[in-house]
Amino acid sequence: MVEWDKEKAIYFTNIKQGLDSYDNEIVWMGEQEAFDFFCRKCKEAKEGSVFADFYYSRLEERSKEIVDQVLSEEERQYVRSLADQIIYPLDEKLLKIITRLNAKKILFSTIYFTGEAKERSTWWGNYNQEYVVFREKI
Where exactly are the structural domains of the chain? Predict the structure, then answer.
């Protein structure tokens, strides 16, 4: 498994810190548009350099049931099979789930493109099909 290296990511614990420390913008993308965009961006990225946070394992049972309602049986099995952690290497299955849950405002996730400063970006899923994008100030 590829290891998450916080030092090579744009990572912060609160939005104010991100807004103060990094260049940022808001990008609007619907579910399919976001999925297609991130698929392309992942293919351009160095292998093992893209991660996502996904808090399903930390949800209470009732919240998991809400998430499960919009997932197929195969997707439910997939998310249940994930290790009990928060940060995962991003694969196409997880990306499909994340972009759907972001678009439906059910569970927001963040996508991290890691690496050298010029390659780094962080995409916070947000309400109204927004992604708040953070990049290094170069």
Answer: 26-112
